[in-house]
Amino acid sequence: MKVSDKLARMTRRDLFKVAGSYGMSSTLLAAGTFGGAMTVAELAKAAESTYEKRFAKEAKHVLKFGAAGFNQRNLLIERAGCLEFARDLESRTDGEIRVEFIGDNQICGQLSCVEKAQQGIIDIYAASTQNSAGGAPYLNVLDYAYMFRNRADQYHFLYSPESQRILREPFEKRHGLKFLFSHAELRGIQMGLAWEDRPTITKLEEIFGTKNRVTGTQLGRIAMQALNLNPVPIAWEETLDGLKQGLIDGAETWASSFVSQSVNLNFFCGTEHTAMNAESFDGLSGDLQDAV
User: Fold this and answer.
1) H helices of the chain, where?
2) Are 243 and 251 in contact (CB under 8 A)?
3) Would you say 128 and 271 are in contact if contact means Cβ atoms under 8 Å apart?
4) The pairing of beta strand 124-128 with beta strand 272-277
5) If you ran DSSP here, which 8-state letter would residue 60 be given?
6) Which is it for strands 250-253 and 188-191: parallel, antiparallel or unpaired?
7) Could you report the per-residue pLDDT of 54-96, keeping only the tens digit for each?
8) CA separation for the pair 258, 265 (Å, rounded)
């Protein structure tokens, strides 16, 4: 059962009441352990138990995890692995590392998380590589159009030894960040409400000349220009309103975000990655580095 189903019996106010007592990280980690729906009292009891386990001994390191707009609900749609990583890391280090998960754009957004990690304001961040390319331009290497045929190609590269030489080491050298892991999707054009009642798009030529939101990726922008898709840089927080109001025709993103029609181009990466400040990583002992 999904976490959203488990939380269905309680209001947002109830959730924040529990989180106010035991912290949002402990509350979300506790919710993920239930096998079915829960009441407020049951969640509070589980959150208390999780809190006591997490704070049973003093942590050697408390890592701030800025997770852009992610929360326990949208992470069930876009499986970026952020909460699972935090829970697993605390468990495997027996509480020597404690992760404070800060999502819902509370400490950083898609465009700013990478910069705040570089500045040491947060230790770990999660955001798309495309939006993060503004602050860490080397991430553009993932966005050559049609370099990856499918998601299997993406996963194969991201976790192959070659990614160490081509992606991870240059990324750390240039930007002071360690690329930890990523989910993998491929981007297309997701059309706005103005296209809801139009005939199904079957050819790319049918959307030539349309205005489409683009992320911070330079190579993605070049690809869209070559395809006559008129890239328009718009912050993700403003994209949905733009699609609904017709300010833009579509958005370069992946299918889990579509509003009306999904034009499945699969033309470059949609990768929500998690990375860590290299100095924060280097400050850990060897066994804790291995755990990360």
Assistant:
1) 3-6, 12-22, 24-31, 40-54, 82-92, 113-118, 129-132, 151-158, 161-163, 169-175, 218-226, 236-245, 278-282, 286-291
2) yes
3) yes
4) antiparallel
5) S
6) antiparallel
7) 665 677 899 999 988 766 565 555 667 788 888 888 878 888 8
8) 13
Q: How far apart are the first and last CA of the chain?
A: 28
pLDDT tens readout for residues 238-272: 888 888 888 899 998 877 666 788 888 989 998 99
Calculate mean pLDDT across residues 138-159.
Answer: 94
25-30: which pairs have CB atoms within 8 A and are 24 or more residues apart?
25/54, 25/86, 25/99, 25/100, 25/101, 26/50, 26/51, 26/54, 28/3, 28/71, 28/72, 28/83, 28/101, 29/54, 29/83, 29/86, 29/87, 29/90
Q: Which one is predicted more confidently, 171 or 259?
A: 171
Q: How many helices (H) and strands (E) does the chain have?
A: 14, 12
The helix or strand, by DSSP H or E, that contains position 58, with its residue range, turns out to be none
Q: In what order do the strands lie in the sheet with 124-128?
A: 97-102, 61-66, 124-128, 272-277, 177-182
Say how far residue 23 (Cα) sits from the centre of its chain.
21
CA distances from 260 to 187, 202, 239, 240 (A): 16, 14, 14, 12
pLDDT of residue 157 exceeding 90, the answer is yes
If DSSP codes are grouped into helix, strand and coil, which group holds residue 290? helix
Q: Would you say 2 and 35 are in contact if contact means Cβ atoms under 8 Å apart?
A: no
Tokens of 8: 């269905």
